[in-house]
Write a structure and sequence with these properties.
single chain, 434 Repressor (Amino-terminal Domain), elongated
């Protein structure tokens, strides 16, 4: 795509089917032109002016209105690459994965410092467009060959964000270990605490519990930030839980709830209910279901945390035989899930669980849920709830079974 002035000269001559003899005229020799075209001699601006003049004369004689710009002819590969990248970054065009080679070719023509700057701009562009894999790739490329990376803390925090979106905690751990030696030694501050917390979380996500626990305990001991203490204690409780130390995990989650807001209490109790479900312990479920229920409020912000609380309360209610409460929580979770991004699979799972607690009197609700599910089916292709719908109709409305079966297989 990017040609040297000498390569452009040859390409233009071939394009317009002009011989070397025609182009040189009386100004230069064919041998000299040939040496320029094969790269043995450089095209100077003086020679380029003469050739552009001859180009225009020949094109005019052929009735061709095209113009050969001296400025465009003399642009180096690097100048063309910089111009392309700047135009691309300013445009709203969404480059497809198949055309990424154009960016790579442009970057190849740049000097290391310029390449680093453009890689940084590219990672920000792709991150803003939620193309996280490409964003991470160009962020890493912006590190290449640098002894000291400008804004390393901020970039590593971005790297943890991107790796979490890509569900690649091992990648986050590897990248942090590789580049963290370049961090300046500083006392714990908000930014450093956040960086170490993200690393600890990535370690735990990667099941490297020993190092994760040591770092979490270090932060708990050293920080004076209440938000950091809260997040770190959640990590510690999670490690206990995943390592099978249920008693310590419940103790930690219970302690987390003390003195917190009702929603934070619900979130802590939610984790304990989940432990009860995993351990098949109805006593744990009953105790913390009631605690969570007593702290629950419809005034909580409708976000992913609220959705998780509702789903766990619904699961707990179902296990405890409180079908009416389970239905109410599941129905509310569906409403919230509909207003959150990328919740299609979650909503399908909620519908599947909801169908396990409905009865014949819920017919009108089932019709509404069925309509929502048919829309989700186009995206998720998850037919598990379809089977539960058919079981419902077989049990309560057998005359509708054939029609519903045909509806789900369309």
């Amino acid at each position: 795509m990017f040609l040297s002035p000498e390569e452009k000269l040859l390409a233009l001559r071939k394009k317009y089917k002009i011989t070397q003899g025609e182009l040189v005229g009386e100004d230069i020799t064919r041998v000299f032109l040939g040496m320029i075209e094969i790269g043995k001699r450089s095209l100077t601006e003086k020679t380029a002016k003469l050739l552009c003049k001859n180009f225009h004369k020949i094109l005019q004689e052929k009735g061709i209105e095209d113009k050969i710009s001296l400025t465009d002819l003399m642009k180096t590969k690097e100048e063309q690459a910089i111009e392309f990248l700047n135009n691309m970054l300013l445009s709203e065009i969404n480059i497809s994965n198949e055309n990424l080679w154009i960016i790579e070719e442009a970057l190849y023509e740049l000097q290391p410092k310029e390449r680093e700057e453009f890689c940084e701009k590219l990672y920000i562009r792709f991150k803003n467009r939620k193309r996280y894999s490409l964003s991470r790739s160009y962020l890493l490329k912006s590190f290449h060959g640098l002894r000291k990376i400008k804004g390393l803390k901020e970039k590593l925090l971005d790297m943890f964000f991107l790796c979490e979106k890509l569900q690649d905690p091992q990648g986050a751990v590897y990248i942090y270990r590789k580049f963290s030696s370049g961090l300046e030694k500083e006392k714990l501050n908000k930014e450093i605490e956040e960086l170490k917390y993200c690393y600890a979380k990535a370690l735990i996500d990667s099941k490297e519990y020993e190092e994760g626990m040591n770092l979490a305990k270090y932060l708990f001991k050293k920080t004076k930030n209440e938000d950091t203490i809260y997040k770190v204690r959640k990590l510690i409780a999670r490690i206990y839980r995943e390592e099978g130390n249920i008693e310590e995990s419940i103790k930690e989650y219970t302690s987390l709830a003390k003195g917190k807001t009702p929603k934070e209490k619900c979130l802590a109790y939610r984790e304990i209910i989940q432990i009860g479900i995993e351990e098949k312990n109805p006593d744990i479920i009953k105790k913390y279901y009631e605690k969570s229920k007593n702290n629950f409020s419809d005034d909580f912000q409708n976000d992913i945390e609220m959705l998780d609380i509702l789903c766990t309360l619904a699961q707990g209610a179902k296990i405890l035989g409180k079908s009416k409460e389970a239905k109410a929580y599941y129905m509310e979770a569906l409403v919230i899930g509909k207003n959150l991004d990328n919740m299609e699979n979650k909503r399908v799972n909620i519908i599947g669980e909801l169908l396990e607690v409905i009865d014949k009197s819920d017919f009108y609700s089932v019709q509404s849920i069925e309509k929502e599910y048919l829309e989700l089916l186009k995206v998720t292709h998850n037919y598990q709830p379809a089977i539960k719908f058919l079981e419902y109709y077989e049990r309560f409305l057998p005359n509708e079974l054939k029609n519903k079966f045909e509806l789900f297989i369309k």
